[in-house]
Amino acid sequence: MTHVSVLKINLEALEHNFNFFKSKLKASTKFLGVVKAFGYGSDSVAVAKHLERIGTNYLAVAYAKEGVALRKAGIKLPILVLHPQPDQFALLIKNCLEPNLYNFKSLEVFVKVLSKNKLENYPIHIKFNTGLNRLGFVADDIPKIISILAANSSVKLASIFSHLAASEDLSEKAFTLSQINQFEQIANKVKKELGYTPMQHILNTSGVVNYSEAQFDMVRIGIGLYGFGNEEKTTNQLQSVVQLQSKISQIHTIKAGETVGYNRAFLSDKVIKTATIPVGHADGISRQQGNGVGYVYINNQKAFIVGNVCMDMLMVDVTAINCAEGDTVYIYKDQAHIEDLAAKQNTIPYELLTAISQRIERKVV
Ligand SMILES: *Cc1c(COP(=O)(O)O)cnc(C)c1O
């Protein structure tokens, strides 16, 4: 289906952002680009292909199927699957994807599936929980992990890693430093008992911005690649990778006493002009943006949403804007726009980006 709304994806901006983060790293530090959730709502294949072209070392997705889509598109880079499900292990192996194993069940099942396939030295990644309390082994698990690895030549530990809970929040600096310190101790213990040296990584985007001294062997950059640094100074140096555009479907003159949209949520007290735009909550525009909260840009002016956001459309106030049916509308114009809308609906750009629905056409520019 073709939908008049399109999400433009700017690969030059992606490359700029990649180079920005590269410049914060030692030459020897590997760069893992996170392309989970359709490349943060953009186009994981287009983004991954470009990242591969410009020298990214690793990619990460959340689930095996996301990695399979990249393999089908011809991507050759190693791909870390951050949250693989045991029933997908065979698929994962078939596609040369590398699992994050985070508990004994996942480790033991994976080793079993490998030995069935008679594979040797298959790269795996082991995650340690240092305070996020989401996924991961703990330090006390190390002896048992080592004994499993020693007994199974089917696996080779490619890396050990952890994830920070509040790397963007400098008021949590003491906690973050304790996570880094804990991770370092865990890694040293693993390396000593393992007999070879796997890579070590803990930093995400804000980790690189605020704690670049803890870059170890690799960093995992997600949101930064798409243009968001989780703080103004960094974001200002990044470029926006996505821009969501649409076109005005129809313009209405609303008389005083008339209402607009479902539930008659907007009642006009004067004559106004509205424009109907073909994006709605099914496209990822939250109903929380309705009734004057959110806005789009038309002819460089803000046009606020009138009434409730519908499933496939929304109406905006264009009384003061010189515009016509068919004119371009910027639903998400740039980072500042996305950040402002995210703040207004009490969330973060990550959520707005990944909510952009798959029915919106992606167009690489
Ligand atoms: C999503 C994710 C990242 C990327 O985080 P950003 O804040 O987007 O850079 C890194 N590591 C893990 C484990 C993740 O789940």
Structural description of this entry:
The protein is of the alpha/beta class and 365 residues long. It folds into two domains: 11-228, Alanine racemase (TIM Barrel); 242-364, Lyase, Ornithine Decarboxylase, Chain A, domain 1, CATH 2.40.37. It has helices spanning 11-22, 36-41, 44-53, 64-72, 89-94, 104-116, 142-151, 173-194, 205-210, 232-235, 335-344, 349-354, and strands at 6-9, 30-34, 58-61, 79-81, 97-101, 122-127, 155-161, 199-201, 218-221, 242-247, 250-254, 259-260, 266-267, 272-277, 295-298, 301-306, 314-317, 328-332, 361-364. A nine-stranded mixed beta sheet has the order 11-14-17-16-15-18-10-1-19. Strands 8-7-6-5-4-3-2-9 form an eight-stranded parallel beta sheet. The chain has a two-stranded antiparallel ribbon with strand order 12-13. Helix 5 (89-94) links the parallel strand 4 (79-81) and strand 5. Helix 7 packs parallel to helix 8. The chain is elongated, with a radius of gyration of 24 Å. The site of pyridoxal-5'-phosphate has 10 residues, from strand 9.
Overall pLDDT confidence? 97
Could you give the distance between the termini?
Answer: 20 Å
**Tally of helical runs:** 12
Could you tell me the CATH topology label of the largest domain.
Answer: TIM Barrel
Strand order of the largest sheet: 11-14-17-16-15-18-10-1-19
Largest sheet at a glance? 9 strands, mixed
Which regions have little confidence, pLDDT < 50, spanning 5+ residues? none
What's the CATH first level of the largest domain?
A: Alpha Beta
Structural class: alpha/beta
How many strand elements? 19
Strand content: 15-25%
